[in-house]
Amino acid sequence: MKVVVIGGGPAGMISAYFGAKLGNEVILVEKNEKLGKKLYITGKGRCNVTNDCDVDEFLSNVVSNPRFLNGAARRFPPEKFMDFLEEKQQLKVERGNRVYPSSDKASDITKALENHLKDVGVEVRLNEEVKEICAENGNVNAVITSKESIDCDRVIVCTGGISYPSTGSTGDGYIFAKSFGHKVVQPVAALCGIELKGSFFKPLQGVSLKNVELTAYQGDKKLFSQFGEMLFTHFGISGPIVLTTSSYINRLDLKTVKLSLDLKPALSEEQLDARILRDFEKYKNKLVRNSLDDLLLKSLIPVVIETSGIDGDKKNSEFSKADRKKLATAIKNLTMYPSSLRSVEEGIITSGGVDVSEINPKTMESKLVNGLYFAGEVLDVDALTGGFNITVAACTAYCAGNAQMIK
Ligand SMILES: Cc1cc2nc3c(=O)[nH]c(=O)nc-3n(C[C@H](O)[C@H](O)[C@H](O)COP(=O)(O)OP(=O)(O)OC[C@H]3O[C@@H](n4cnc5c(N)ncnc54)[C@H](O)[C@@H]3O)c2cc1C
Q: Which long-range contacts (CB under 8 A, 24 or more apart) does 169-177 make?
Protein backbone atom coordinates (compact mmCIF):
# COMPACT_ATOMS: atom_id res chain seq x y z
CA MET A 1 0.00 0.00 0.00
CA LYS A 2 1.10 3.56 -0.61
CA VAL A 3 0.73 5.86 2.41
CA VAL A 4 1.21 9.63 2.53
CA VAL A 5 1.85 11.11 5.98
CA ILE A 6 1.22 14.85 6.23
CA GLY A 7 3.41 16.65 8.76
CA GLY A 8 6.85 15.86 10.14
CA GLY A 9 6.31 16.41 13.86
CA PRO A 10 6.48 13.51 16.32
CA ALA A 11 3.10 12.10 15.23
CA GLY A 12 4.08 12.20 11.55
CA MET A 13 7.50 10.64 12.05
CA ILE A 14 6.23 7.87 14.32
CA SER A 15 3.26 6.91 12.15
CA ALA A 16 5.49 6.96 9.04
CA TYR A 17 7.96 4.64 10.76
CA PHE A 18 5.39 2.07 11.85
CA GLY A 19 3.59 2.25 8.49
CA ALA A 20 6.83 1.57 6.60
CA LYS A 21 7.91 -1.14 9.02
CA LEU A 22 4.83 -3.09 7.97
CA GLY A 23 6.06 -2.99 4.37
CA ASN A 24 4.05 -0.04 3.07
CA GLU A 25 5.58 2.52 0.74
CA VAL A 26 5.50 5.66 2.89
CA ILE A 27 6.03 9.27 1.85
CA LEU A 28 6.29 11.86 4.62
CA VAL A 29 5.49 15.39 3.42
CA GLU A 30 6.60 18.33 5.57
CA LYS A 31 6.16 21.95 4.58
CA ASN A 32 9.10 23.22 6.64
CA GLU A 33 12.74 22.98 5.64
CA LYS A 34 13.31 20.39 8.38
CA LEU A 35 11.46 17.84 10.48
CA GLY A 36 10.44 18.44 14.09
CA LYS A 37 10.50 22.23 14.15
CA LYS A 38 8.16 22.34 17.14
CA LEU A 39 9.93 19.45 18.86
CA TYR A 40 13.05 21.58 18.77
CA ILE A 41 11.54 24.12 21.19
CA THR A 42 9.86 21.63 23.51
CA GLY A 43 10.90 21.35 27.15
CA LYS A 44 12.81 24.67 26.84
CA GLY A 45 14.99 23.10 24.15
CA ARG A 46 15.53 19.88 26.12
CA CYS A 47 12.34 18.05 25.03
CA ASN A 48 10.43 16.41 27.84
CA VAL A 49 9.60 13.61 25.44
CA THR A 50 7.49 11.37 27.67
CA ASN A 51 6.81 10.43 31.27
CA ASP A 52 8.12 7.29 32.91
CA CYS A 53 4.76 6.30 34.36
CA ASP A 54 2.16 3.57 33.90
CA VAL A 55 -0.78 3.87 31.52
CA ASP A 56 -3.31 4.84 34.21
CA GLU A 57 -1.17 7.72 35.35
CA PHE A 58 -0.60 8.81 31.76
CA LEU A 59 -4.36 8.80 31.14
CA SER A 60 -5.00 10.73 34.36
CA ASN A 61 -2.92 13.53 32.84
CA VAL A 62 -4.99 13.63 29.66
CA VAL A 63 -7.54 16.43 30.00
CA SER A 64 -9.71 15.99 26.90
CA ASN A 65 -10.99 12.59 25.82
CA PRO A 66 -8.85 10.22 27.91
CA ARG A 67 -11.40 7.45 27.26
CA PHE A 68 -10.88 7.70 23.53
CA LEU A 69 -7.14 7.35 24.13
CA ASN A 70 -7.39 4.36 26.45
CA GLY A 71 -6.74 1.65 23.83
CA ALA A 72 -3.96 3.56 22.07
CA ALA A 73 -2.23 4.29 25.38
CA ARG A 74 -2.28 0.59 26.27
CA ARG A 75 -0.94 -0.50 22.91
CA PHE A 76 1.91 2.01 22.95
CA PRO A 77 2.42 3.02 26.58
CA PRO A 78 5.22 5.35 27.73
CA GLU A 79 7.37 2.32 28.50
CA LYS A 80 7.24 1.09 24.89
CA PHE A 81 7.75 4.60 23.58
CA MET A 82 10.89 4.90 25.69
CA ASP A 83 12.19 1.55 24.42
CA PHE A 84 11.54 2.70 20.87
CA LEU A 85 13.47 5.96 21.40
CA GLU A 86 16.28 4.25 23.28
CA GLU A 87 17.08 2.15 20.22
CA LYS A 88 18.54 5.41 18.89
CA GLN A 89 18.96 7.83 21.79
CA GLN A 90 19.80 7.46 25.46
CA LEU A 91 17.19 8.93 27.78
CA LYS A 92 17.15 10.08 31.39
CA VAL A 93 14.38 10.47 33.93
CA GLU A 94 14.08 13.59 36.07
CA ARG A 95 11.76 15.01 38.75
CA GLY A 96 8.11 14.06 38.24
CA ASN A 97 9.21 11.10 36.06
CA ARG A 98 9.82 13.51 33.21
CA VAL A 99 11.90 11.89 30.47
CA TYR A 100 14.52 13.83 28.47
CA PRO A 101 17.29 12.88 26.04
CA SER A 102 20.43 12.35 28.13
CA SER A 103 22.16 14.98 25.96
CA ASP A 104 19.55 17.58 27.04
CA LYS A 105 19.10 18.43 23.36
CA ALA A 106 15.62 18.33 21.84
CA SER A 107 17.24 18.03 18.41
CA ASP A 108 18.54 14.60 19.44
CA ILE A 109 14.97 13.33 19.71
CA THR A 110 14.31 14.48 16.14
CA LYS A 111 17.59 12.84 15.06
CA ALA A 112 16.54 9.59 16.73
CA LEU A 113 13.21 9.63 14.89
CA GLU A 114 14.93 10.52 11.60
CA ASN A 115 17.27 7.58 12.05
CA HIS A 116 14.29 5.31 12.57
CA LEU A 117 12.77 6.66 9.34
CA LYS A 118 15.96 5.90 7.42
CA ASP A 119 16.02 2.31 8.70
CA VAL A 120 12.63 1.55 7.18
CA GLY A 121 13.06 3.57 3.98
CA VAL A 122 10.50 6.34 4.49
CA GLU A 123 10.75 8.93 1.72
CA VAL A 124 10.92 12.34 3.39
CA ARG A 125 9.94 15.36 1.33
CA LEU A 126 10.73 18.75 2.87
CA ASN A 127 9.60 22.21 1.74
CA GLU A 128 6.48 20.65 0.29
CA GLU A 129 3.03 21.58 1.52
CA VAL A 130 -0.07 19.45 1.18
CA LYS A 131 -2.89 21.56 -0.21
CA GLU A 132 -5.68 19.04 -0.58
CA ILE A 133 -6.59 15.43 0.11
CA CYS A 134 -8.64 13.74 -2.62
CA ALA A 135 -11.11 10.87 -2.33
CA GLU A 136 -13.35 8.97 -4.69
CA ASN A 137 -16.37 6.92 -3.65
CA GLY A 138 -15.52 7.42 0.01
CA ASN A 139 -11.92 6.22 -0.41
CA VAL A 140 -8.84 8.40 -0.19
CA ASN A 141 -6.85 8.20 -3.42
CA ALA A 142 -4.42 11.14 -3.67
CA VAL A 143 -2.97 14.24 -2.11
CA ILE A 144 -2.16 17.42 -3.96
CA THR A 145 0.94 19.20 -2.74
CA SER A 146 2.60 22.50 -3.63
CA LYS A 147 4.71 20.49 -6.10
CA GLU A 148 2.61 17.63 -7.50
CA SER A 149 -0.24 15.21 -7.08
CA ILE A 150 0.66 11.96 -5.30
CA ASP A 151 -1.59 8.91 -5.77
CA CYS A 152 -1.96 6.89 -2.58
CA ASP A 153 -4.19 4.43 -0.71
CA ARG A 154 -3.98 6.06 2.68
CA VAL A 155 -3.31 9.44 4.20
CA ILE A 156 -2.33 10.05 7.81
CA VAL A 157 -2.95 13.67 8.82
CA CYS A 158 -0.40 14.72 11.47
CA THR A 159 -0.49 18.48 11.01
CA GLY A 160 -0.65 19.41 14.70
CA GLY A 161 -2.83 22.17 16.17
CA ILE A 162 -2.67 25.94 15.69
CA SER A 163 -0.41 26.93 18.57
CA TYR A 164 3.01 28.43 17.82
CA PRO A 165 2.12 28.71 14.12
CA SER A 166 5.68 29.76 13.23
CA THR A 167 6.64 26.11 13.75
CA GLY A 168 4.32 25.07 10.91
CA SER A 169 1.25 24.07 12.92
CA THR A 170 -1.25 26.34 11.21
CA GLY A 171 -4.43 24.32 11.48
CA ASP A 172 -4.33 22.79 7.97
CA GLY A 173 -5.54 19.47 9.36
CA TYR A 174 -8.79 21.07 10.49
CA ILE A 175 -9.44 22.27 6.94
CA PHE A 176 -8.72 18.80 5.52
CA ALA A 177 -11.02 17.24 8.12
CA LYS A 178 -13.85 19.68 7.45
CA SER A 179 -13.54 19.12 3.69
CA PHE A 180 -14.71 15.54 4.35
CA GLY A 181 -17.53 16.62 6.66
CA HIS A 182 -15.67 15.97 9.92
CA LYS A 183 -16.67 18.00 12.94
CA VAL A 184 -13.87 20.07 14.42
CA VAL A 185 -14.21 21.06 18.07
CA GLN A 186 -13.41 24.79 18.39
CA PRO A 187 -9.64 25.03 18.96
CA VAL A 188 -8.71 27.02 22.06
CA ALA A 189 -5.49 27.59 23.98
CA ALA A 190 -4.41 25.07 26.59
CA LEU A 191 -1.45 25.24 28.95
CA CYS A 192 -1.43 29.01 28.68
CA GLY A 193 -1.47 32.13 30.83
CA ILE A 194 -4.73 33.49 32.25
CA GLU A 195 -5.72 37.14 31.83
CA LEU A 196 -7.38 38.67 34.89
CA LYS A 197 -10.09 41.25 35.35
CA GLY A 198 -9.23 44.41 37.26
CA SER A 199 -5.81 45.82 37.96
CA PHE A 200 -4.91 44.66 41.49
CA PHE A 201 -2.24 42.36 40.04
CA LYS A 202 -0.42 45.12 38.08
CA PRO A 203 1.97 46.05 40.92
CA LEU A 204 2.77 42.35 41.27
CA GLN A 205 4.09 41.96 37.72
CA GLY A 206 7.21 39.79 37.80
CA VAL A 207 6.49 38.39 41.29
CA SER A 208 6.79 34.62 41.39
CA LEU A 209 5.30 32.49 44.12
CA LYS A 210 6.29 29.06 45.35
CA ASN A 211 4.30 26.59 47.46
CA VAL A 212 0.93 28.20 46.79
CA GLU A 213 -2.34 26.54 45.84
CA LEU A 214 -4.61 27.70 43.03
CA THR A 215 -8.21 26.49 42.91
CA ALA A 216 -10.70 27.06 40.10
CA TYR A 217 -14.43 27.20 40.81
CA GLN A 218 -17.45 27.39 38.57
CA GLY A 219 -20.11 28.86 40.80
CA ASP A 220 -19.67 26.88 44.01
CA LYS A 221 -18.36 23.81 42.24
CA LYS A 222 -14.68 23.18 42.74
CA LEU A 223 -13.21 22.31 39.35
CA PHE A 224 -9.56 21.86 39.98
CA SER A 225 -6.86 22.63 42.52
CA GLN A 226 -3.08 22.51 42.24
CA PHE A 227 -0.17 23.22 44.52
CA GLY A 228 3.10 24.63 43.17
CA GLU A 229 4.58 27.66 41.47
CA MET A 230 3.10 30.58 39.56
CA LEU A 231 3.91 34.15 38.63
CA PHE A 232 2.19 37.47 38.00
CA THR A 233 2.59 39.01 34.56
CA HIS A 234 1.45 42.16 32.76
CA PHE A 235 -1.78 40.42 31.72
CA GLY A 236 -2.52 38.38 34.84
CA ILE A 237 -0.99 35.07 35.89
CA SER A 238 1.18 32.36 34.39
CA GLY A 239 3.63 29.65 35.49
CA PRO A 240 3.20 25.90 36.07
CA ILE A 241 0.00 25.72 38.16
CA VAL A 242 -1.67 28.40 36.04
CA LEU A 243 -0.89 26.54 32.80
CA THR A 244 -2.50 23.43 34.23
CA THR A 245 -5.52 25.37 35.46
CA SER A 246 -6.02 26.90 32.00
CA SER A 247 -6.51 23.43 30.53
CA TYR A 248 -9.44 22.82 32.90
CA ILE A 249 -11.26 26.09 32.27
CA ASN A 250 -10.56 26.74 28.58
CA ARG A 251 -13.89 25.35 27.35
CA LEU A 252 -16.01 27.14 29.94
CA ASP A 253 -17.72 30.50 29.94
CA LEU A 254 -15.10 32.37 31.95
CA LYS A 255 -17.74 34.71 33.33
CA THR A 256 -18.78 31.77 35.52
CA VAL A 257 -15.25 30.97 36.72
CA LYS A 258 -13.49 32.20 39.85
CA LEU A 259 -9.90 31.50 40.93
CA SER A 260 -8.84 31.35 44.54
CA LEU A 261 -5.19 31.60 45.53
CA ASP A 262 -4.08 30.19 48.87
CA LEU A 263 -0.81 31.88 49.77
CA LYS A 264 -0.28 29.66 52.83
CA PRO A 265 -1.72 26.24 51.99
CA ALA A 266 0.40 24.49 54.63
CA LEU A 267 -1.41 26.38 57.41
CA SER A 268 -5.03 25.97 58.48
CA GLU A 269 -6.95 29.19 59.24
CA GLU A 270 -6.37 28.58 62.99
CA GLN A 271 -2.65 27.98 62.51
CA LEU A 272 -2.44 31.07 60.36
CA ASP A 273 -4.22 33.14 63.01
CA ALA A 274 -1.75 31.91 65.64
CA ARG A 275 1.10 32.79 63.30
CA ILE A 276 -0.28 36.31 62.70
CA LEU A 277 -0.64 36.82 66.46
CA ARG A 278 2.99 35.75 66.95
CA ASP A 279 4.19 38.20 64.31
CA PHE A 280 2.07 40.99 65.83
CA GLU A 281 3.73 40.27 69.16
CA LYS A 282 7.16 40.40 67.55
CA TYR A 283 6.42 43.70 65.81
CA LYS A 284 4.51 45.12 68.78
CA ASN A 285 2.87 48.51 68.24
CA LYS A 286 3.83 48.67 64.57
CA LEU A 287 1.27 49.33 61.89
CA VAL A 288 -0.33 46.20 60.49
CA ARG A 289 1.17 46.84 57.05
CA ASN A 290 4.61 46.77 58.70
CA SER A 291 3.95 43.61 60.70
CA LEU A 292 3.62 41.03 57.98
CA ASP A 293 7.12 40.91 56.48
CA ASP A 294 7.91 37.49 57.96
CA LEU A 295 4.72 35.99 56.62
CA LEU A 296 4.34 37.43 53.13
CA LEU A 297 6.45 38.71 50.27
CA LYS A 298 6.73 42.50 50.63
CA SER A 299 4.97 43.15 47.32
CA LEU A 300 2.01 41.01 48.37
CA ILE A 301 1.31 42.85 51.63
CA PRO A 302 -0.54 45.88 50.18
CA VAL A 303 -2.56 43.60 47.87
CA VAL A 304 -3.61 41.34 50.73
CA ILE A 305 -4.49 44.30 52.94
CA GLU A 306 -6.50 45.91 50.16
CA THR A 307 -8.46 42.76 49.29
CA SER A 308 -9.13 41.92 52.96
CA GLY A 309 -10.78 45.30 53.50
CA ILE A 310 -8.90 45.88 56.76
CA ASP A 311 -7.18 49.11 57.71
CA GLY A 312 -3.46 48.48 57.27
CA ASP A 313 -2.63 51.75 58.97
CA LYS A 314 -4.02 50.58 62.31
CA LYS A 315 -1.55 49.56 64.98
CA ASN A 316 -1.52 45.81 65.27
CA SER A 317 -2.29 46.07 68.99
CA GLU A 318 -5.62 47.66 68.03
CA PHE A 319 -6.52 44.76 65.77
CA SER A 320 -9.61 42.70 66.67
CA LYS A 321 -10.08 38.98 66.20
CA ALA A 322 -12.55 39.77 63.41
CA ASP A 323 -9.91 41.89 61.62
CA ARG A 324 -7.41 39.04 61.91
CA LYS A 325 -9.97 36.68 60.45
CA LYS A 326 -10.44 38.97 57.44
CA LEU A 327 -6.67 39.07 56.98
CA ALA A 328 -6.33 35.29 57.20
CA THR A 329 -9.19 34.84 54.74
CA ALA A 330 -7.49 37.15 52.23
CA ILE A 331 -4.23 35.24 52.62
CA LYS A 332 -5.90 31.88 52.14
CA ASN A 333 -8.40 32.96 49.53
CA LEU A 334 -7.10 35.71 47.27
CA THR A 335 -9.90 35.79 44.73
CA MET A 336 -9.20 36.48 41.06
CA TYR A 337 -11.57 36.61 38.10
CA PRO A 338 -10.30 35.46 34.69
CA SER A 339 -11.26 37.69 31.77
CA SER A 340 -9.81 35.47 29.05
CA LEU A 341 -7.04 33.06 28.25
CA ARG A 342 -4.01 33.98 26.22
CA SER A 343 -4.51 33.45 22.49
CA VAL A 344 -4.55 29.96 21.03
CA GLU A 345 -1.37 30.78 19.10
CA GLU A 346 0.37 31.35 22.44
CA GLY A 347 -0.85 28.17 24.13
CA ILE A 348 1.72 25.42 24.60
CA ILE A 349 -0.87 23.24 22.96
CA THR A 350 -4.22 23.49 21.24
CA SER A 351 -7.26 22.02 22.93
CA GLY A 352 -10.01 21.05 20.50
CA GLY A 353 -9.55 19.69 17.00
CA VAL A 354 -10.93 16.77 15.02
CA ASP A 355 -13.91 15.37 16.94
CA VAL A 356 -12.88 11.95 18.21
CA SER A 357 -16.42 10.56 18.06
CA GLU A 358 -15.86 10.30 14.31
CA ILE A 359 -12.50 8.52 14.64
CA ASN A 360 -11.94 4.80 15.21
CA PRO A 361 -9.95 4.69 18.48
CA LYS A 362 -8.15 1.45 17.47
CA THR A 363 -6.81 2.68 14.15
CA MET A 364 -7.30 6.48 14.21
CA GLU A 365 -9.14 6.06 10.92
CA SER A 366 -11.96 8.41 9.96
CA LYS A 367 -15.38 6.84 10.30
CA LEU A 368 -16.48 8.97 7.34
CA VAL A 369 -13.80 8.27 4.71
CA ASN A 370 -11.83 5.08 4.12
CA GLY A 371 -8.07 5.44 4.23
CA LEU A 372 -8.06 8.79 6.05
CA TYR A 373 -6.32 8.82 9.45
CA PHE A 374 -5.53 11.47 12.05
CA ALA A 375 -2.83 11.37 14.73
CA GLY A 376 -1.31 13.76 17.24
CA GLU A 377 -2.39 17.22 18.28
CA VAL A 378 -4.77 17.63 15.32
CA LEU A 379 -7.17 15.39 17.29
CA ASP A 380 -9.35 16.71 20.10
CA VAL A 381 -7.07 15.25 22.77
CA ASP A 382 -4.80 17.30 25.02
CA ALA A 383 -2.83 16.60 28.14
CA LEU A 384 -0.97 18.35 30.94
CA THR A 385 2.74 19.15 31.05
CA GLY A 386 5.14 16.36 31.96
CA GLY A 387 5.83 14.82 28.54
CA PHE A 388 2.22 13.73 28.09
CA ASN A 389 1.44 15.63 24.90
CA ILE A 390 4.23 14.08 22.86
CA THR A 391 3.13 10.76 24.33
CA VAL A 392 -0.41 11.42 23.01
CA ALA A 393 1.15 12.10 19.59
CA ALA A 394 3.22 8.91 19.85
CA CYS A 395 0.47 6.48 20.80
CA THR A 396 -2.08 7.80 18.30
CA ALA A 397 0.64 7.72 15.62
CA TYR A 398 1.53 4.14 16.55
CA CYS A 399 -2.10 3.10 16.00
CA ALA A 400 -2.43 4.97 12.71
CA GLY A 401 0.88 3.59 11.41
CA ASN A 402 -0.04 0.05 12.40
CA ALA A 403 -3.66 0.32 11.23
CA GLN A 404 -3.20 -2.27 8.54
CA MET A 405 -2.54 -4.94 11.18
CA ILE A 406 -5.87 -4.23 12.82
CA LYS A 407 -8.16 -4.03 9.80
C1 LIG B 1 6.92 25.88 23.57
C2 LIG B 1 6.38 24.47 23.59
C3 LIG B 1 6.94 23.54 24.46
C4 LIG B 1 6.43 22.24 24.50
N5 LIG B 1 7.04 21.34 25.34
C6 LIG B 1 6.57 20.07 25.37
C7 LIG B 1 7.23 19.09 26.16
O8 LIG B 1 8.29 19.35 26.76
N9 LIG B 1 6.68 17.84 26.22
C10 LIG B 1 5.53 17.51 25.53
O11 LIG B 1 5.07 16.38 25.63
N12 LIG B 1 4.94 18.40 24.71
C13 LIG B 1 5.43 19.67 24.61
N14 LIG B 1 4.84 20.56 23.77
C15 LIG B 1 3.71 20.10 22.92
C16 LIG B 1 4.22 19.26 21.74
O17 LIG B 1 5.24 19.97 21.07
C18 LIG B 1 3.11 18.94 20.75
O19 LIG B 1 2.02 18.38 21.45
C20 LIG B 1 3.58 17.97 19.69
O21 LIG B 1 4.64 18.55 18.94
C22 LIG B 1 2.46 17.59 18.74
O23 LIG B 1 2.98 16.76 17.73
P24 LIG B 1 2.30 16.65 16.31
O25 LIG B 1 3.20 15.80 15.50
O26 LIG B 1 0.88 16.26 16.44
O27 LIG B 1 2.28 18.14 15.73
P28 LIG B 1 3.48 19.17 15.43
O29 LIG B 1 4.66 18.87 16.23
O30 LIG B 1 2.85 20.50 15.54
O31 LIG B 1 3.84 18.87 13.92
C32 LIG B 1 2.99 19.17 12.85
C33 LIG B 1 3.82 19.27 11.58
O34 LIG B 1 2.94 19.30 10.45
C35 LIG B 1 3.48 20.20 9.50
N36 LIG B 1 2.39 20.63 8.61
C37 LIG B 1 1.28 21.30 8.98
N38 LIG B 1 0.49 21.49 7.91
C39 LIG B 1 1.12 20.91 6.84
C40 LIG B 1 0.81 20.78 5.45
N41 LIG B 1 -0.31 21.29 4.94
N42 LIG B 1 1.69 20.15 4.64
C43 LIG B 1 2.84 19.65 5.16
N44 LIG B 1 3.20 19.76 6.45
C45 LIG B 1 2.33 20.37 7.27
C46 LIG B 1 4.04 21.33 10.36
O47 LIG B 1 4.99 22.09 9.64
C48 LIG B 1 4.63 20.57 11.52
O49 LIG B 1 5.99 20.24 11.31
C50 LIG B 1 5.33 21.85 23.67
C51 LIG B 1 4.82 22.79 22.78
C52 LIG B 1 5.33 24.08 22.73
C53 LIG B 1 4.74 25.05 21.75
A: 169/9, 169/38, 169/350, 169/377, 172/6, 172/129, 172/130, 173/6, 173/7, 173/353, 173/354, 173/374, 173/378, 174/353, 174/354, 174/378, 176/6, 176/130, 176/132, 176/133, 177/354, 177/374, 177/378
Alpha carbon nearest to ligand 1 atom 26, residue = 376
pLDDT-above-90 percentage for the chain:
91
37 Cβ closer than 6 Å to some ligand 1 atom: yes
Centroid of ligand 1 to alpha carbon of 42 (angstroms): 9
Q: In the chain, how many H helices and how many E strands? A: 12, 22
Give me ligand 1 centre to Cα 173, in Å. 12
Closest residue by CA, ligand 1 atom 33: 7
Nearest CA to ligand 1 atom 3: 42
Instruction: Provide the 8-state DSSP code for 59.
Output: H
Short-list 319, 323, 297, 299, CA closest to 309:
323
pTM beyond 0.85: the answer is yes
Superfamily of domain 193-341: rRNA adenine dimethylase, C-terminal domain (1.10.8.100)
Are the C-beta atoms of residues 392 and 398 closer than 8 Å to each other?
Answer: no
Distance 274 CA to ligand 1 centre (A): 50
Q: How far is the CA of 234 from the centre of ligand 1 (A)?
A: 27
Query: Over the stretch 120-164, which tens digit does the pLDDT of each residue have?
Result: 999 999 999 999 999 999 999 999 999 999 999 999 999 999 999
65 lines ligand 1 (CB under 6 A): no
Take atom 47 of ligand 1 and give the residue whose Cα is closest: 168
Beta bridge partners of 292: none
Q: Is 114 in the pocket of ligand 1 (CB under 6 A)?
A: no
| Whether 243 contacts 258, CB under 8 Å | no
CATH fold group of domain 2-188+350-406: FAD/NAD(P)-binding domain (3.50.50)
CA 357 from centroid of its chain's CA atoms: 21
**Where in the chain are all domains bearing CATH 3.50.50.60?**
2-188+350-406
pLDDT value for 23: 94
